[in-house]
Amino acid sequence: MVQFYDIREVSSESLSINLENGVVEKPKYDFSKSKGFRVLKNGFWGLFFGNVDDKTGLKLAEKNVVSEGDADVADVKSKGKFVFKAKINPKDVDIEEKIKLLKDVENVLKDSKIVSTRIAYLENVRKFSYKDSNGSEVYYEVPRIGIIIHAFAKDKTLQFYSKRLLKVAGFEVFDDTPFKLAEEVKDVLNKLVNAKTPPSGEMNVIMDSSLAGVFIHEAFGHAVEADHVLQNSSIVADKLNKKVADESVNVYDDPNIQEFGFYPFDDEGVKAEKKAIIENGILKSFLHSRETAAKLNGKAGNARAQGVDEPLVRMSNTYIDEGEYNFDELLEDAEIYLVGSRGGETNPATGYFHFNAQYGYIVENGEITDMVRDVSLSGNTLSILYSIKVGKGLRFDPGFCGKAGQLVPVADGSPPSLVKAFVGGA
Question: Fewest C-beta in 10 Å: which of 119, 149, 212, 285?
Fold first, then answer.
């Protein structure tokens, strides 16, 4: 007997333009429309993907139920429609104007030390419709748009720096922000090529908003995804309702914030809702799909998919909330100030993390001094959370998060925060 079924229909319309060292690559337009069918029967999922009518799709998905299992789903029903209206629809803007924007941004970067530039423009509209055997029926349209600036500069060393503006919005986001970002890229690179190598050892580190946001997403956020908890590959699997951080720490995942990880309904049709992950240092909840919510008595709403692929437990806009320290107070105890992230590695099962910052500064007697390059940060997630001093000034950074071969848009946020961790060369 069929326990549950759902039907998703997703269309995605995208345009990307790249300008590399003054040369415009051929603009790339993509349109895809597909349907995904899932049937849960005897505790086992059957899946089918294809543009067929609902009855046929469900029959083919049911045919793919080839065993028995222990899967179940939380009984959730949602109804609703959401259409995000951009102030300036990118479709109404000529492609020539989009290319001119890229060229104008590139002009800001022109400098004797900068040897290579790449500027990418992207726009996308995702239209999503969903219905299931519980009576859910939802629909949304969400546009995303952005510009990504990459540059290399050379003097004593060859250095790379990048900035990005990615939003749920229309063409109206392109005010003077891309030009300010390009100025920042140029200014930072001019100093970075002649910056010192970093000191090494355990020290008091200020993570800027961007690096602290990456920390909370990568080092902690993946550990509270309930599929990792069920696989016993999470350092906090047995810590629900227990203290995991200093009592000043509050961490949330909120898809309702109109940052890059925004969605009105998840890919299982569940209405978006703010989730308290840590409150006053206590682990309050994991992030769930319908299936993990049924197994762990949690709340569904964090199942996401690329296209109509199988929905996985994912973050949205994940952030450390505002703390009580202003930046000058953090500087008083700091030995180094690290800015941005160039990737790294984390292990949600052990809590170990290692990130490369984009650059940093030595801090002496509460004052920011020499810039350092090729600098890394490593430590243990829970140790960091127990000793962290959270600052003021919450900011979000956009990006794409990968899991099981699927990419989804997310945003990480934090105020600047002071931690004790290991610093070294990247």
Answer: 285
